[in-house]
Design brief:
Blueprint: E1 11-16, E2 20-29, E3 32-42, E4 48-49, E5 52-53, H1 56-70, E6 76-81, E7 86-94, H2 99-109, E8 121-130, E9 137-146, H3 147-159, E10 163-169, H4 170-180, E11 193-199, E12 203-210, E13 213-221, H5 225-235, H6 239-248, H7 255-280, E14 289-293, H8 302-310, E15 314-316, E16 324-325, H9 331-337, H10 342-348
Parallel strand pairs: 1-6, 3-16, 6-10, 11-14, 14-15
Antiparallel strand pairs: 1-2, 2-3, 4-5, 7-9, 8-9, 11-12, 12-13
Length: 353
């Protein structure tokens, strides 16, 4: 019997998107989770294209700057690859197998499920639980990604002086948040179907969670870069200048009616289209709520705008709403960035499930 459990070393959740590195450190105590440190560091243009790393050194330098900016002392990191870079499949296996035996059998049979040579992939599995109609088998989730997707992210983190503890998949990182921070969901997510729509710079993902479990995921190209490029074109600015004024303001009076409103309408159409894909491929005919995540969720009033267009209750994802925050963390800035930190949050708390 242990009177005092050894303190678990913190894991930095590091989300590498197309435009920035987001770093988050979370601890867990008797009163729940606490944000210990966080930072967002922009990436050079083209360092990452649609979440595929093109310049490992530039990404490693951005991670190092984020570590320095956050003032964290943690040295372990959890990263994620995008859902589009991963093949997942649920298989059934005998419940009597030990984890080691199961791993051995999966390695032998993996070529039946994964269309790549085994030496070119990273493969992992998770036992989901008993099969619905059999006590003798369990459902097992297989996940496989080309090794380069994992290795390039790991190499960037190691350049920043970090040791990679785990590599997750982005949709499952979002599921971790829904499981461990259910307070941000209506009725704590119990029996509810929630569509988490993450609209980043170049990619949008739909992750549908039912009863806090991921049931559907889809990605497609669309994001805030389109708005930045329209600001560039309309006002003859560089890409960097357009990105800055988009966030900080200072654009002419015609910006909102002529540039921002059309983009918001396009966002609403994209969300509606995503939901139609989900409904057409499942038995679901509706969702209880839409949660907007990603950088585009920071557009003022976008939740009310999309709710008015689609007719489904819509809110902004904020996993930190009920969390304590360390004194060195700027709470106001954290709240402003909250919707863009869902993946980083899911990675930072993955050791506590």
């Amino acid at each position: 019997m242990f009177l005092f459990k050894p303190r678990q070393p913190p894991i930095l959740g590091i989300d590498i998107s197309s435009t920035s590195v987001k770093l988050l450190e979370i601890s867990r105590g008797g009163s729940g989770f606490r944000v210990e440190s966080y930072a967002v560091e922009p990436l050079p243009t083209e360092a990452v294209a649609e979440k595929v790393i093109q310049d490992v050194e530039a990404v490693g330098e951005a991670i190092q700057k984020a570590v320095q900016k956050s003032k964290t002392r943690a040295k372990l990191a959890a990263l994620a690859v995008p859902g589009s870079a991963v093949i997942t499949k649920i298989i059934t296996m005998p419940a009597s197998l030990s984890e080691d035996d199961m791993e051995g059998q999966i390695q032998i049979e993996a070529d039946q499920y994964i269309p790549y040579p085994l030496e070119e992939i990273n493969l992992d599995f998770e036992v989901l639980g008993p099969t619905e109609d059999s006590r003798e088998t369990v459902d097992v989730l297989l996940a496989a990604s080309k090794s380069e997707n994992v290795e390039m992210r790991s190499a960037a983190a190691e350049l920043a002086g970090l040791s990679v503890k785990a590599v997750d998949v982005e949709p499952y990182a979002i599921e971790h948040v829904c499981e461990l921070v259910p307070e941000m969901l209506p009725d704590n997510g119990e029996g509810r179907t929630i569509a988490v729509v993450d609209i980043g710079a170049t990619l949008t993902s739909l992750n549908v969670v039912h009863d806090r479990q991921l049931i559907y995921t889809r990605e497609q190209p669309f994001g805030g870069k389109q708005l930045t490029e329209e600001i560039m074109r309309r006002y003859s600015l560089s890409y960097e200048e357009a990105g800055r004024v988009k966030k900080q303001g200072g654009l002419p009076d015609n910006y909102e009616p002529e540039v921002l409103e059309p983009f918001k309408t396009t966002m609403a159409h994209q969300v509606s289209r995503f939901l139609q894909f989900f409904f057409s491929s499942s038995d679901y005919e509706g969702v209880d709520q839409i949660l907007l995540a990603g950088g585009c969720a920071q557009i003022p009033g976008i939740d009310e705008f999309i709710e008015a267009h689609i007719g489904t209750p819509t809110g902004i994802a904020n996993p930190f709403e009920t969390m304590n925050v360390a004194s060195r963390v700027n709470r106001q800035r954290l709240e402003a960035d909250a919707s863009a930190l869902m993946i980083a949050c899911g990675l930072a708390i993955r050791g506590y499930d």
